[in-house]
Amino acid sequence: MKIQDLKEPSTISYGGLIEKIEILRSTLRWATSLDRPQIQKLLSQCNALREEVMQLSHKERFVTASAERTSSRKRSTAQRRQALLDRSFVFEGVFGESTKLLEALEIGEKAAPTDLPVLIDGESGTGKELMAKVIHANGSRSDKPYVSVNCGAIPENLIESELFGHKRGAFTGAASDRSGKFETADTGTIFLDEIGELPLQGQVKLLRVLQSQEIQRVGSDQVIDVDTRIVAATNKDLLQMSQEGLFREDLYYRLSVIHLTLPPLRERQDEIPLLIEYFSDEAAEKLNRQPLRFSRRLRTFLLKYDYPGNIRELRNLIYRISCLADATADYEHLPETIRPDVSKQKGDAAAKSEVFDLDKASLPDIKRAASDEAEKEFIEYGLQQVGGKVAELARQINMNRSHLQTLLKKHGIRSKDYRATAGSSPEK
Ligand SMILES: Nc1ncnc2c1ncn2[C@@H]1O[C@H](COP(=O)(O)OP(=O)(O)O)[C@@H](O)[C@H]1O
Ligand SMILES: [Mg+2]
C-alpha cells in the first residue's frame, strides 16, 4: 500500500478513517513480503488505532447529539417555524409563533404521515378545524378525500345515517340506500367536529370503526370495510364527560392516541398585534381596499380585548372593520355588543374608571401599559423622523438593532409604513 492512498482528503470523517484502517488491516493480512511476527505487530497496532478512532467517533456523535438537544430547547419559535417551512410543512394558512402553537404544529407534523387517530381540543375559534386540515395536508392521504362532519349540527336521530349511511326503508324517509360520510372519506380523512355531541349509540359504532375498520349502514347487516383516518375535535372536556357517563371512556382513549390542545388567544396575547396585521392585510386584499388604519384608541382596545371567540372573533372583527371603515377605523366600527361606551368617559371620574378599573387592573399592570404605550409612541415618532429607516433609528437612539426590531414586532409597527409617509403622522 502506498502512502498516497492514505492522505487524499484534507478532512476525513471518522467513518472514512475506520474504513481506511480496515483496508490496511486486510492488506496486511495477505502481505507476502513481511514475516508473521511483523504482520502480527502491525495488525495489533492497527487494532489499537481502530479502537481509538471508534472512541473518538462515539464522543463526536455524543457531542453533536447533545448540541442538537440543547439547540432545540434554545431555538426561538421563529426558528422552529422556519424549520417547519424548510421541511416543506404545509401550513394551510396557520399563522402565529407562540410556543404552544408551535408545539401543536410540531406534533401535527409527526402525526400527519401516520394513520393514528388525532383528537384536537381547545375553545371555539382556536383553529381546530384548520389544524385538522393541516394534518390531512401533510399526510400521505393529502390527495384523497377530506370529509368534514359537524356532529353538533345534525339532528340526533340522523347522525348515524349521516356517518354510516342507511339501507332503504331503515326509517321513515329513507327512500333509497345511501352511503355515509365514512364511505365517502374512504382512503382519506374524516374530520369529526364537535365529537362530544355524538350520541352514545353513535359512539358505539364509531368505536367499532376504530377497532376493526368496518361500518354497517343503518338497517343493514352487511359489513363494509373502510380505510378512513379519523381526526376529531371538541371544545368539551371529554374525560369529564366520560366520568358523567356522557362519553364512552374507551372511545376517548381510542380517539386521543395523539392529543393536541390549541391555546386560547388570551394565552398568546403577544401575538395579537401580528394577527391584527395579518388579517388586515388579508382583508384589504380580499376586499380590494387600502390597508386599514386604526385610531389609537381602537388599536388599544383591540390589543387589550380578551376575545372570547378567539382567532375567529379577531378575524371577523378585522374583516368587519375593514368593510365598514373608510380611511381610519374607530370605535364606531366595532359591533355594538363590545363597543366601549364613550359617554361613560365624559366627566373626569368616569374617564378614570374606564382606564383604572379597580376590580381588574393592578398598579403594576397600569404602569406596564403606560410604559408600553410610551415605548410605542417613542418608536413611531422616531421612525417618522428617520423616514422608516430602522438601522438609522437604532443608531440615533443608541439601541441594538435587533432589539429595536423586536420592539417593532411587539407593537405591530411596520417600518415600511413610515417610508413613503416620512414627515406626516400615520395613526397606525
Ligand atoms: N393560527 C391561525 N392562523 C390564521 N388563522 C387562523 C388560525 N387559527 C384559526 N384561524 C382562523 O380562525 C377561524 C376559526 O378557526 P377554526 O379552525 O374554524 O376554529 P375552531 O374549529 O377551533 O372553532 C378560521 O377562519 C381560521 O381560518
Ligand atoms: Mg370549529
Element layout with pairings:
Blueprint: H1 14-29, H2 36-74, H3 77-86, H4 99-111, E1 118-121, H5 128-137, E2 146-150, H6 159-164, H7 181-184, E3 189-193, H8 200-212, E4 214-215, E5 224-225, E6 229-234, H9 238-243, H10 249-255, E7 258-261, H11 272-286, E8 293-294, H12 296-304, H13 310-324, E9 328-329, H14 348-355, H15 363-385, H16 390-396, H17 401-411
Parallel strand pairs: 1-6, 1-7, 2-3, 3-6, 8-9
Antiparallel strand pairs: 4-5
Helix pairs in contact: 1-2, 3-4, 8-10, 11-13
The structure holds adenosine-5'-diphosphate (ADP) and magnesium ion.
Care to count the β-strands?
9
Structural class: alpha/beta
Q: For the CA atoms, what is the radius of gyration?
A: 31 Å
How many DSSP H or I helices?
17
Label the overall shape. Answer: flat
> What's the CATH H-level superfamily name of the largest domain?
P-loop containing nucleotide triphosphate hydrolases
